[in-house]
Amino acid sequence: MCGIVGYVGNENASGPVLNGLATLEYRGYDSAGLATIEPGLDHLGIYKAAGKLVNLRQVVDDAQPQGTTAIGHTRWATHGDPTTVNAHPHTTADQRLAVVHNGIIENHLEVAAMLREEHGITPVSDTDTEIIAHLIGTLYTGDLKEAVRQATQVLTGQYAIGVIHRDHPDTIVAAVNGAPMVIGTTDDVAVLCSDVAGLLPYTRHITAVPDGHMAMLTPGHMEIFDQDGAPATGHTYEVDWTAEEAEKGGYPSFMAKEIAEQPRAVRDTMTGRWDGTQVHIDEVSFDLSRLKTFDKIIIVACGTSHHAGLVARRAFEHWTRLSTEVEIASEFRYRDPIVNKATLVVAISQSGETADTIAAMQYAQDQGATTLGVTNMVGSTLARGADSVIITRAGREVAVASTKAFTTQIVALMVAALWIGQARGNLYVEEIQAVFDDLQSLPDAMETVLAQDAYIGSLATALVNRLTSQHGYVMFFGRLNGLPIALEGALKLKEISYLHAEGFASGEMKHGPIALIEPGVTVIAIATEGAVKTKVMSNIEQVKGRGAHVIAIVTEGDDDVRALADDVIVVPAAMELASPILAVIPVQMLALHVANALDRDVDQPRNLAKTVTVE
Ligand code: F6R
User: Fold this and answer.
1) Are residues 231 and 299 both part of a single domain?
2) How many CB atoms lie within 10 A of CB 513?
3) Category of 368 on φ-ψ map: left (φ > 0), alpha (ψ -120 to 50) or beta
4) Which of the two residues, 531 and 503, has the higher pLDDT score?
5) Quick one: 494 and 528 in the same domain?
6) Which residue minimizes the CA distance to atom 13 of ligand 1?
7) Which residues of 144-176 are buried (b: 16+ CB within 10 A; e: fewer)?
8) Residue with CA at minimum distance from ligand 1 atom 7
9) Residue 453: inside a domain, yes or no?
């Protein structure tokens, strides 16, 4: 997360950099900042503000910087609170060198210790980025590119950085490792940005800086270097997007983009959670010994977040050995639930602002319970109010239908379950390591599901063609891990296509819902490998026997379900507790294709809002 912009050219650079940052606000907006090389000053101009970009605009308007070289940043906090002091750019103590950074420096504690011992440097912020500035500062002997190159040999982790120095008024040096950075030039300007959208006012000819490479920008020029400092080439391409399309990264809708972003989002959510001996979450404001005193866990959430809670229940019970209930937040506090100081209440909300979820969390706190918030929004009411927080790093979710928030919530909840299980002494380090090893393989597995887009599109077209005025509905079923995915698939389909869709526990079909089956009705069966696959197969046979058209989601290598179903969508094998993270992607994609086929507004479906701040 976070967005960076750099401009070197012939006009006042602060305007173009602020405009570039505006296109990146979706990457984070808890603080922003700008550094310029100011004529006549022996240090850089540094301007920062907590909160949204509008606050930084005010600071810059008041200061009226004049420099024609600047770097800027919009932040989504990972290390340290979203305060002004933690806002980028970060500088050396003499403020002659400044850095903006997107990513995470994994060895920042180690580098900070070295800087303290060998150079007596004490950072002023809580960020990993400030360490980069000091490190480059200690390596600088007059050649900025070489100092940055040497610093990249020391730093580990994922990053894209932009660096300026007072002694090099027309230069930005950049370095990339596992985070995006694109560059564009005109005759007298060079611009870098985390995203193509920021370059479109200048050019549609884009150069992406390859991983492990550096770039040097001067007015109208850019050069790429490899890690030895030798000249190299970037990946160049042309885009013909409008600004809005650029924000969508070339996808036809935000929902399509957000579905496709899930491998990256899941990877980011896992990053830094396990150091080989200890599970980490973001913030805890109580004594960890309290984790041993709980006798029950209650998960509260609404909509898709509630479904993530249903998926995670098994992980919580398995790893914490505590009884775990999952409640719809809007129901919770009205039934006088048994909650006390031995209860841990986990509140899940993408926005962190859902009124019912906040109220449920506050109710639990009033009863003496400890709360853990799981949210995508740093600084949200949920993040500020909970006793401990784990942030999902999905990035801004614009489409009303939640997709990448769901998969990242499951990952975050699994991390939370491991954290509690470890604190309670239920898990050996080797067991936790094995889970993280499995989780690491998910992003690649997710890519193989996403690659079936055209095929899933063809299933959606056929599904739409099967609808009739008599049965204009779709049924989803599954058991155990498959049930929350059936519920989620039905929710996705109904909210963006306006078709009636319901999710059922497949064992319940014969207790009523099977009456809805007649020839031609589509049933989506979640039939991935696991303890209940053969039971789901019986349920498939029962609806097939009554004329249903069954689309089954199956695990790679499965031939049993394939022999029963009309169509199958194959997902890679995964550890059973995490398999819903893969099984949900086909139902998201199917819903999107059906809604597109019906010409719906998939990003802003009728009657809905992204954040539900009323009861
Ligand atoms: C469905 C959807 C909603 C949200 C629900 C909770 O696609 O997006 O059901 O999941 O409104 O929102 P958050 O997670 O922000 O509390």
Assistant:
1) no
2) 17
3) left
4) 503
5) yes
6) 349
7) bbebbbbbbebbebbbbbbbbbbebebbbbbbb
8) 401
9) yes
Atom 10 of ligand 1: nearest residue by CA position? 304
Q: Which pair of structure tokens corresponds to residue 226? A: 């490899």
Note whether 231 and 120 are same-domain residues: yes
Instruction: Please report, rounded to a whole number, the percentage of residues in the chain having pLDDT higher than 70.
Output: 97
Of 411, 403, 459, the closest CA to residue 584 belongs to 403
Q: Provide the residue range defining the domain that includes 413.
A: 247-440
Residues 355 and 418 in one domain: yes
DSSP 8-class letter at 33? E
Where among 415, 440, 465 does a domain terminate?
Answer: 440
Which residues lie below 8 Å from residue 67, measured CB to CB, with a gap of 6+? 12, 13, 14, 36, 37, 38, 39, 45, 169
Q: Indicate which atom in ligand 1 lies nearest the CA of residue 400.
A: 8
Phi, psi of 266 (to 5 degrees): -65, -40
Q: What is the largest CA-CA distance in the chain?
A: 83
**CATH number for the domain harbouring residue 475:** 3.40.50.10490
Determine the Cα–Cα distance for residues 139 and 262; give it in Å rounded to an integer.
Answer: 38
Which residues approach ligand 1 with their CB closer than 6 A?
A: 302-305, 349-351, 354, 357, 401-402, 491, 495, 611-612
Kindly report, residue by residue over 422-476, the tens digit of the pLDDT.
999 999 999 999 999 999 999 999 999 999 999 999 999 999 999 988 889 999 9
pLDDT of 517 > 60? The answer is yes
Same domain, 387 and 290: yes
Say yes or no: 198 and 64 in one domain.
yes
Domain tally for the chain?
A: 3
Query: Model confidence over 230-263: pLDDT tens digits?
Result: 999 988 887 766 666 567 888 999 999 999 999 9
d(CA 118, CA 276): 28
Structure token pair of residue 358: 């906040």
Q: Are residues 271 and 297 located together in one domain of the fold?
A: yes
Which CATH number does the domain housing residue 213 bear? 3.60.20.10
2 catalytic, yes or no?
Answer: yes
What are the start-end ranges of the E strands in 240-320?
A: 283-284, 296-301
Whats the size of the chain, residue-wise? 615
Q: Confirm whether 611 is domain-assigned.
A: no
Catalytic: 610?
Answer: yes
**Are the beta carbons of 603 and 495 closer than 8 angstroms?**
no
User: What is the CA 95 to chain-centroid distance, rounded?
Assistant: 33
Handedness of CA 351, 352, 358, 361 (dihedral sign): positive
